[in-house]
């Protein structure tokens, strides 16, 4: 759609000399106010005088509206992509976040799981105590906790009938 200009709006404003007021309002797309000016002689001429100062902003507003409606969508979507890896100060921090923290001492449950892995997934209470270096009572509580967490199942050895804890490792 064609843009409107201020010169044409000022020429239409001059029609008020002949009693036709509000032409500039029709031109800038303000039909309601244009009709009001037409039937009230530009609000007794006061509105027409005020419009001399308001015509440039009315033309700019109409042109902005027309630019938005030409694209079919007046809303403009903007996106900003920020790559934090390109900021030198953050590169060291990102490296420390990405690397897992190595602990020198494993938790008792980790020791138990490693022992189970080394013994083919089956442990007795004595074997677990030997590999984890914990007291048998602590190992027993740890095995019960592993059973509750679903990490181990309690079974009996087919040959000896001894209690074995089977880990799916």
What distinguishing features does this structure have?
mainly alpha; TM2 domain-containing protein; membrane; 2 domains; TM2; TM2D1-3-like; single chain; 169 residues; three-stranded antiparallel sheet; 56% helix; transmembrane; 7% strand
Distance between the termini: 72 Å
Q: Radius of gyration over alpha carbons?
A: 42 Å
**What portion of residues is helical?**
55-70%
| Oligomer class | single chain
What is the gist of this entry?
This is TM2 domain-containing protein. With 169 residues, the protein is mainly α. It contains nine helices and three strands.
Describe the structure.
With 169 residues, the chain is mainly alpha-helical. It folds into two domains: 6-70, no CATH class; 108-167, Arc Repressor Mutant, subunit A, CATH 1.10.10.10. Helices cover 56% and strands 7% of the residues. It is built from nine helices and three strands; from the N terminus they run αααααααβααββ. The chain has helices at 6-13, 23-27, 31-39, 41-44, 46-70, 88-98, 108-118, 125-132, 136-148, and strands at residues 122-123, 152-156, 163-167. It has a three-stranded antiparallel beta sheet with strand order 1-3-2. The longest helix has 25 residues, at 46-70. The model has no long low-confidence stretch (mean pLDDT 85). This is TM2 domain-containing protein.
């Amino acid at each position: 759609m064609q843009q409107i200009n201020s010169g044409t709006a000022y020429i239409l404003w001059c029609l008020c000399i002949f009693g036709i007021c509000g032409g500039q309002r029709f031109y800038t797309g303000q039909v309601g106010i244009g009709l009001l000016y037409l039937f009230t002689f530009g609000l007794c001429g006061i509105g027409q005088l005020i419009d001399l100062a308001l015509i440039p902003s009315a033309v700019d507003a109409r042109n902005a509206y027309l630019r938005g409606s030409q694209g079919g969508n007046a809303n403009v979507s903007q996106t900003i992509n920020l790559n934090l890896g390109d900021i030198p100060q953050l590169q060291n921090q990102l490296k420390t976040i990405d690397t897992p923290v190595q602990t020198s001492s494993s938790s008792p449950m980790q020791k138990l799981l490693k022992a189970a892995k080394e013994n083919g997934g089956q442990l007795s209470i004595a074997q677990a105590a030997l590999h984890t270096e914990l007291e048998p009572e602590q190992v027993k509580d740890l095995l019960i906790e592993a059973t509750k967490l679903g990490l181990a199942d309690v079974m009996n050895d087919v040959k000896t009938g001894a209690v074995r804890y089977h880990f799916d490792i």
